[in-house]
Backbone:
């Protein structure tokens, strides 16, 4: 580990009604990965936005020193010029531009007369991808056609094209497959060798030890002690510092008695959005029961999201199959049809489909449940409306000064809690959760699991897609495994091992009766 390259001193940053950062001091060194840990809303992203010029120097108090020299950034451009690059929690690529254009956005190579040298743009972009050994991405591919994981890789390539000496990664693996995460870690280790200072934010505790050198914990906007070497501090101790209380049970699954079949799916298929004669999902048949949690496991890109989006009416014209709810055939052609039939879907992409970011937290939670908060004449009862929103905000521990605050004022994990609250509030018969705890901190995860328990106890059918094997194993009663658009296995969770699930998910094995 090298010299201290970054020192942030006494940083304080206020938002209306919230002190997001309260006198935080932090140091990071050349050639290290400093993990920044803390609950949702602890101030991690805000601290890194202060560092990277997203929040200009005039908006906070305190000092930033890079190699001992005080720097004041008015914009991200200033920070980039000083060698600070950030990969944000939410992807920031322009979907309808190519990979190469995105990597060199704002910094195109010019021929004379201001004409962009496109060949050079793509050539340089290809060099960066190659240096990172990122395969399977063409520099002329439209970003829109890439998986979320590949898009994340492009973000990283973009940050590295700036030859940053300080690189911030805000939950970079939340949408990556295990393979892609391995690739990322390989890249980060190489950068560590080259002396790059990296600050890494994550809610995945196993990553702390895999990639981190030291860890700094934030709680309620304050630094909890100084950074410590990961080799000398236990994960339990880090968790205790983050949440300031004991978390005993990570997966509070309760035994249940499955009831009758509520959802029957037969021969469901989803077309590929671009390629004819190719299916994203094919021949999928399964049942889901009242009062059970049905897990859907698989690798990223296995077709799980397409399956549930199709079932929910989100892919009109591209999805088809026989679907019955409570024994009756249903024709679901739009999300409205699905909601009317008693279904709800918590999507993995909260920015796109989950939240209306400019609206208040209250409106976001109650919008899909207007009936429940209206009086007999169909007029919204403000007391009920507010009451319902406040109940969920309290239950899930959403960190906000008021339910009237706009959804975009929340930290990433707290936005996820609001999406979940919105669908829990609809009191649907069938609740589908797509990666429900992505980006959610350890404490809030357990709250979400408890709510899932409450729901199954009340007879709701819960279907949960998750890429976290421990979560699938810990919370579901049965597990469906998908691989390349098909169901390849159905397992009772009791008696199944992680290795079994992985074997099926990676296509090593197919269960008898499938395929
Ligand atoms: N633009 C904003 N307007 C108002 N409040 C904000 C804004 N950005 C952040 N906050 C508030 O500042 C606090 C810290 O948020 P921040 O996004 O830094 O948390 P975080 O540690 O990154 O959490 P997560 O793990 O959920 O991403 C939160 O209470 C949040 O609501
Ligand atoms: Mg954050």
Residues:
């Amino acid at each position: 580990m090298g010299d201290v390259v970054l020192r942030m001193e006494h940083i304080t940053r206020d938002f209306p009604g919230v002190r997001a950062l309260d006198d935080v001091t932090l140091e990071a060194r050349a050639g290290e990965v400093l993990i920044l840990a803390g609950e949702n809303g602890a101030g991690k992203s805000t601290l890194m936005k202060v560092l990277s010029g997203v929040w200009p120097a005039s908006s906070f108090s305190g000092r930033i020193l890079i190699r001992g020299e005080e720097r004041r950034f008015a914009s991200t451009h200033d920070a980039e010029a000083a060698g600070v690059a950030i990969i944000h929690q939410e992807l920031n690529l322009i979907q309808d531009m190519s990979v190469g254009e995105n990597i060199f956005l704002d910094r195109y190579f010019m021929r004379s007369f201001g004409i962009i040298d496109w060949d050079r743009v793509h050539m340089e972009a290809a060099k960066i991808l190659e240096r990172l050994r990122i395969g399977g991405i063409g520099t002329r591919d439209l970003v829109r056609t890439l998986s979320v994981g590949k898009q994340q890789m492009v973000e990283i390539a973009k940050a590295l094209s700036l030859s940053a000496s300080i690189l911030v990664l805000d939950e970079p693996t939340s949408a990556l497959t295990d393979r892609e995460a391995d690739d990322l870690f390989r890249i980060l280790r190489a950068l560590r060798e080259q002396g790059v200072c990296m600050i890494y934010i994550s809610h995945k505790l196993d990553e702390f030890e895999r990639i981190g050198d030291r860890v700094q914990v934030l709680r309620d906007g304050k630094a909890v002690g100084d950074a410590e070497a990961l080799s000398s501090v236990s994960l339990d101790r880090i968790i205790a510092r983050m949440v300031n209380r004991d978390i005993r049970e990570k997966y509070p699954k309760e035994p249940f008695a499955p009831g009758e079949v509520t959802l029957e799916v037969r021969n469901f298929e989803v077309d590929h959005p671009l390629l004819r004669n190719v299916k994203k999902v094919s021949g999928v048949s399964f049942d889901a029961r009242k009062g059970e949690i049905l897990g859907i496991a698989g690798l990223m890109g296995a077709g799980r999201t397409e399956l549930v989006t199709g079932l929910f009416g989100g892919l009109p014209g591209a999805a088809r199959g026989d679907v019955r709810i409570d024994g009756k055939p249903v024709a679901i052609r739009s999300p409205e049809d699905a909601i009317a039939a008693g279904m709800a879907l918590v999507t993995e992409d909260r920015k796109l489909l989950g939240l209306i970011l400019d609206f208040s937290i209250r409106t976001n939670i109650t919008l899909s449940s207007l009936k429940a908060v209206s009086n007999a004449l169909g007029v919204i009862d403000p007391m009920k409306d507010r009451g319902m929103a406040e109940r969920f905000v309290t239950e899930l521990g959403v960190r906000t000064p008021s339910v009237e605050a706009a959804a975009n004022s929340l930290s990433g994990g707290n936005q996820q809690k609001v999406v979940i609250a919105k669908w829990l509030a609809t009191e649907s018969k069938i609740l589908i959760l797509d990666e429900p705890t992505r980006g959610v901190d350890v404490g809030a995860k357990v709250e979400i699991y408890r709510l899932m328990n409450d729901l199954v106890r009340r007879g709701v059918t819960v279907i949960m897609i998750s890429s976290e094997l421990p979560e699938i194993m810990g919370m579901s009663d049965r597990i469906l495994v998908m691989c390349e658009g098909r169901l390849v296995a159905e397992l009772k969770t009791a008696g199944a091992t992680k290795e079994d699930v992985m074997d099926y998910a990676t296509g090593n094995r197919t269960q008898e009766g499938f395929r």
About this structure: The longest strand covers residues 4-15. The mean pLDDT is 88. Residues 178-193 form the longest helix (16 residues).
